[in-house]
Structures are given as C-alpha cells and as structure tokens.
Design goal:
This protein is of the alpha/beta class. The protein has helices at 22-25, 59-67, 82-96, 107-110, 121-136, 152-158, 165-180, 201-204, 213-241, 263-285, 291-298, 309-315, 364-378, 404-423, 471-481; strands spanning 15-19, 100-104, 140-146, 187-191, 246-252, 255-258, 320-324, 328-331, 339-341, 346-348, 354-355, 361-362, 382-386, 427-433, 453-455, 467-469. The two termini are 38 Å apart. InterPro entries: GH, GH_1_N_CS, Glyco_hydro_1, Glyco_hydro_1_AS. Belongs to the glycosyl hydrolase 1 family.
Length: 488
C-alpha cells in the first residue's frame, strides 16, 4: 500500500515577508551620485484605471522629463523616501516578524550611466547599510537585480535592452553586487516580471516610436532575448561567486480560464497561457519552447541569437521560480467579450469574481491553481513574491487605518497557498506586495495603497511621510508568529 504523510501546514523556515521596488519606495533620485532611471521619466497617470501609463514613453517625453528636475509630475523620483527612512521602516518590518524582505537594487545607484567602468561607492554603501539593518533583525534580503528600471543613459544611447551591448553592462553590474554582498544576500532574482518585456518600455527601456505592430514585437522579443542571456550569465556568476546563494526568475502570472467550454475559447485560453509561460519555460527549462516557433513565424519575429546563446540558456537555468499573483482573467475567441483592467494588462471579465477599487478581479483559488500548475510543469521550488490588494485606505482622526478588506483578501489567498502545500507543492515563501505604502507601478499614484504601514503622503507628494500601523499590520504579525496557522 502506498502511503505518504500530507503536510498539515507551511514548512518550518517558510519565508514570510513583503516586497517593494527601489523606484517606488526609495526616493532620493539624484542623491549620492545616483543616475536617472527609466522609471523616473514616466509621468503620473491622469486616469486611475489606466495601468499602462508607464509604457507611454517616447523620445519626446524623455527629453521633456530630462529637462524637468522636479518630482511633481514624476512621483517615482520621490517614492516614500525609504532612502532616509530605511532604519525606521525595517524596524517596523521586524516588529511584524518578517523572515524575508524582498527589495530591489537601483542599477543606476551603482552604475549611474549604466556603461560606467567603475561603480559608485556611495550607492554600494547605501545597500551595505540596508542589508546590515536586515541582518540586525534576522531578516533575509531577497534581492531583485532589475525591477522595472535601468540607467536612462542606456535608453538614450542605445535603446536599452534592444541592444545586445546592454548585456555586457548588466553583467558588470551583477558581478559587482554579487561580490559586494556575498554572504549578506542568500536569495537573488534577475528580472522582475520579465514577461513585461512584451509590454514595452516598462521592462526593456526600449522606445517604440512609430513602429508597426510586428516591428514592436520584433523589438520586444529581441530585447527579452538579451535579458534571457543576461539572466543566464547572472545565474552562472552567482553560483561561482557565492555557491550558497540561490537565484531565481520572476514572472507576472496571468492565470486565465476559458470563458466557456467552447473549444475555441479553450484553445484561446491555452494560447494565452503559452504566451505567459514562454518566459519561465526558457529560464527554468533552459530552451525556447517549440510552440513559439509558429507564433514567431506568423508575426515576422526572428530572434537574432549569437553562437553560444542556446548553450548559455541551457546552463543558466534558475534555482527557483518566483512570481506575482494578483488576479485572474477569462479568455474568449470572441472579440466582443467584456474586458476588465488588471496588472499592467487587460483581460476578460469573469462574472463569478469580485473586483478591487481598480477593477482587478479577486480570485484566491486561482493562486492554488497556479501553484499546482507551476509545480507540475517545472518541479522547482516556488516563491510567491507579490500578492496584495491596492485600495483607497483612509487614515482616521485618531491615526488608525481599518483595512478589514485587505485582511480578507490576504487571508483567502494564504488559505489557498496552504491548500497548495497540502497538494504537495514545494513553496519557499510569501512576500506580500507591499508591506509599506509606496508609489504605484502602473499609474504612479500614492492613493493606491497596499501596505500594512500607512505613509502620510498624497498623490501630489504632500504630507509628513510619517508611518502608521494599519489593522492589517497586527493581523499579519499574528500570521507570521503562528506560521500561517492563525488567520482569524
């Protein structure tokens, strides 16, 4: 008789924590030798529902942004001033009991122009201090090497990742930080939501002025190929410089279902899934999947690979797969199907799901489905590194934030993670987005709040920047203390 013990809960050593990005939290955009980044030329959105503002960048808007040295129109330049509040903020994370804190390094803090031959010592020293502060509280840093930003100079000089030469500059940067933080950082990730490369400027720093649809695809997939190669090289570097460290990839998971049992809808859903999983297929399996051959041929995409690229990809597979999960969509072969907004994209409306203030469909069971599908497909450890609810939180007169809606959202998702662990999924940890209020990635709003910690700043940058604990702060503290057992 075959019998095996079923896990009853989250494993010991589970990495509970939260996640942020340098360009949304740090501020100090022109301090201590830091260069301007691609994130800092993205204007704030004028339409709350518009989650693609960060891609509406042209040569003209970049020139305009470079001439404007203020933060009013470019909120990611100010963030929430983590640069000067990091001690206070990390102390608050420790108070919640964080085991891990996912953050990113601003490439332009280390290499201001991207193509510099020597790093900026002041930038390196800042992250020395941040990691030391984490170590003081036994918090493991989980570090993303590139999170929706790169030195703007690389866009101006060579259109970002559209140029193969950018691999060389990225490799110089990764070697420096791997060596500098050896023994201080055990968990690394290469590119945040690497599939965002097919949404344009956000991820690749490549401008797409006056290109046809097929020309855009050609540029985007070529730029992503360069990122694949850079990621594979970084994996090799990391393993050689610090054999005890682990390095993963990161995907924006777009869980989707067929709108109906119509085989046409089912096939369209399968196609959309392949478009999403292509990126992890390359980074986890180490090769381009066959199903993309037809897609590339039908859209006149020809990936320019240099000799040795395929060998690099095969050798540079990641140690774990991390991903963001906020919502799910439905897919239909019909162009008339109702649409809804989402995480940097749009998808079909599911009549069975509720939505957030920003129209994102809330689907906790979809997280369990994703975890099982990933485990079945890849058989590598999984890490949920973004999941959370953006909402219009209100600070009361007595400095409280009663965010029961966020607690409800997180509780339901954590319960489904627990179900997935009982299903047999190897799950490393969970870092919610985001533990502290910060600037929205898509719209550059402050009013779209995710945190357990409220930051007194409005969309115009007004406020004291004082930090306040929300109700969810104390709830998550209890979740961590009980390793996910007490979710009441």
């Amino acid at each position: 008789m075959y019998t095996k013990n079923i896990p009853t809960g989250f494993p010991q050593g589970f990495l509970w924590g939260g996640a942020t990005a340098a360009n949304q939290i740090e501020g100090a955009w022109d301090v201590d030798g830091k260069g301007m980044t691609t994130a800092e030329v993205v204007r704030k959105a004028t339409d709350r529902q518009n989650a693609m503002a960060m891609n509406q960048v042209t040569k003209a808007t970049i020139a305009e942004a470079m001439a404007d040295h203020g933060t009013e129109n470019y909120p990611k330049r100010r963030g929430v001033d983590f640069y000067h509040h990091y001690q206070e903020d990390i102390k608050l994370l420790a108070e919640m009991g964080f085991k891990a804190y996912r953050l990113s390094i601003a490439w332009a803090r280390i290499f201001p122009n991207g193509d510099d031959q020597e790093p900026n010592e002041k930038g390196l020293e800042f992250y020395d201090r941040v990691f030391a502060e984490c170590a003081k509280y036994n918090i493991e840093p989980v570090v993303t090497l590139s999170h929706y930003e790169m030195p703007l100079n690389l866009t101006v000089q060579r259109n970002g990742w559209a140029s193969r030469k950018t691999i060389e500059d990225f490799t110089r940067y990764t070697k420096v930080v791997f060596e500098r933080y050896r023994g201080k950082v055990k968990y690394w990730m290469t590119f945040n939501e690497i599939n965002a490369g097919t949404w344009g400027f956000t991820s690749t720093g490549a401008i797409e002025d006056n290109l046809s649809a097929d020309e855009k695809l050609q540029l985007e997939y070529q730029a992503v190929h360069h990122q694949f190669v850079a990621s594979a090289i970084a994996v090799k570097q990391c393993h050689e410089i610090d054999p005890t460290a682990k390095i993963g990839c990161m995907l924006a998971r777009m869980q989707n279902y067929p709108l109906t049992p119509d085989p046409k809808d089912v096939r369209e859903s399968q196609f959309q899934d392949q478009q999403n999983l292509f990126f992890t297929d390359v980074q986890v399996r180490g090769e381009y999947p066959e199903y993309m051959n037809r897609y590339f041929a039908e859209h006149n995409v020809e990936i320019n690979m240099e000799p040795g690229d395929e060998k690099l990809l095969a050798a540079g597979t990641v140690d774990y797969l991390s991903f963001s999960y906020y919502m799910s969509t439905v897919t239909s072969a019909s162009k008339d199907a109702e649409q809804t907004s989402g995480n940097l994209t749009f998808g079909g409306k599911n009549p069975y799901l509720e939505t957030s203030d920003w129209g994102w469909q809330i689907d906790p069971i979809g997280l369990r489905i994703t975890l099982n599908a990933f485990w079945d497909r890849y058989r590598v450890p999984l890490f949920v590194v973004e999941n959370g609810l953006g909402a219009l939180d209100k600070l009361t007169e007595d400095s409280q934030v009663h965010d029961s809606y966020r607690i409800d959202y997180l509780r339901k998702h954590i319960l489904q993670m627990k179900e997935a662990v009982q299903d047999g999924v190897d799950l490393m940890g969970y870092t919610s987005w985001a533990p502290i209020d910060l600037i929205s990635a898509g719209t550059s709003e402050m009013s779209k709040r995710y945190g357990f910690i409220y930051v007194d700043q409005d969309d115009e940058g007004r406020g004291s920047l004082k930090r306040y604990r929300k109700d969810s702060f104390y709830w998550y503290q209890k979740v961590i203390q009980t390793n996910g057992e007490d979710l009441a």
